[in-house]
Fold these 2 entries.
Entry 1:
Amino acid sequence: MPTVADIIHLVEELAPPQYGLPGDPGGLQLGEAKAEVRRVLVALDLTGDVLDRASAAMADLIVLHHPPVFRPLTDLRADRPHNRLLLRAAAADVAICAWHTALDSAPGGINDWLAARLGLSDATPLLETGREKLYKVAVFVPVGYEDTVRQAMGDAGAGYIGNYSHCTFAAPGTGTFKALPGATPFLGRVGELERAAELRLETIAPASRLPSVLSAMLAAHPYEEVAYDVYALENQGPQSGLGRVGKVRDTDGSPAITGRDWLRRCQAIWPSVAASSVAASTTAAPSVCVTAGASRLDALFSSAAGCSGDGGRLVDTAIRRGAAALVTGETGYHDRMLAEEEGLLLVEVGHGPSEAVYLPILADRLGERAAAAGWDVDLEVVLH
Ligand SMILES: [Zn+2]
């Protein structure tokens, strides 16, 4: 049975902590890393309703998007409303973890998913916050097994260079080893020096994929003990950051879309939240509305942006990046004023719905990884 730490490791493969903004708390916030996990609740925020659901489902762990411990706590008095939820969770012996901006920014995370649903092509982060670290992985493989190991590493995310995957380089050589008592060598005999025809198979992997790449490589390699090296590289990895901006086409393939069709595309994403089992609750209710730039509804444009959560502060960036439209969770008065002034078609869907729409995807991805690890874990999504 997996532990809280095991499930956290799975989530961190999907939302590597290095993608989070500096100072954004993430990971385990409450509970015991060694505790066993049978049932997991996936939700946006820590609320009384989420704790009720956790109790009803006998959940051992709640995976949240927004960290409930965000600012340094000055006390844990039970007469403070926010503290009451944390104290109640502690009393219920349920662990809580959260990822926030790491999940927003990570490849395949909320904003990548949103960009795909919005039909953005050549999408890049709207606000660049960093570049992913790259690593070189070099592994020594007996001749004849290089294809198996290359395939496994490539499938796990190694060897991506531009529009190419499974990129490796292989140099032949001779490996030597002497198996000691207790070993069961794939080649040679215990106590004798073995010389094996091997290939030095090298590739690159981004930091977020490195653990999966190494696990896949070790699983595919025939040796009992695998010799491999991992080096940090100075090469620049892919950009990471918040929101996405890209080209947008009409559904018929023409290289521009009208504001009305863009709005329909947004409406097609968020009503799916309303179709959930908690459609009646307030924050999940669809609230797609144009809050600025309505004059653009009949105009054609070919560049647009999306940002989950509070994308108001990216209105200026979206305009500078050439986007004609931005869909986001929420904005402030001055953000809307700026958008109106500059003719940016601004569509708001509500902070919660802009992120909650991804929670079923997160649960599915977690479930697949848990199943692949051989863990029997129940996952339930709470859409607030
Ligand atoms: Zn948020």
Note: Residues 66, 309, 351, 355 surround zinc ion (CB under 6 Å).
Entry 2:
Amino acid sequence: MLSSILKKESCAACRFCCAFRRQSLWEVPIFTKENKEAIEKNSSLDASVLIPVSDGLFGDVKGDFADFLSDYFRYELFDSYQTEDPEEEAPCPYLDSKTGCVLNEDEKPWDCKIWPLRVMRKEDGEIVVALTPTCPSVNQLDMETIKEFVNDEFKEKLLSYAKEHPFLVKEYREDFPIL
Ligand code: SF4
Ligand code: SF4
């Protein structure tokens, strides 16, 4: 989404946002049913890594909420870590170490399309667009420039998509600057 202000070469050398430390597992992207169906149609991709978000997270979920959750999927990285080092990163199963993300537009989750932006819910319920503070490239840019760019180009679209998919809205974290 910020491709016009993020350099492709910087991302190719970094790939930080496609591998996760244990404490960053809350950032693992959520796939919609549509993303999963598109992945299933692509014979070069493995859709079996995608499991319902409810698996192992919420215990026994029933009723309307269970129906709602059944539209969302994630992958499990918990068993991918080889050491006890909290800095160890486990790569996304859709990351190719040479070419980057292997997913096409309709297969790629919204979380990844909008990175390093995040739509977040504050404690008082307000939904805001925020910036992930850990992207090294974006951190070198002037905050006012990013704010202006995002507000002009994307903010309304992001908030409107978040309204349709409230499950994709993440809980607000203090160190994320609000745009
Ligand atoms: S963290 Fe930032 S610089 Fe690194 S790959 Fe992701 S978007 Fe690119
Ligand atoms: S789906 Fe693609 S962009 Fe998203 S974390 Fe995985 S490799 Fe990165």
Note: The chain has two domains: 7-103, 116-179.
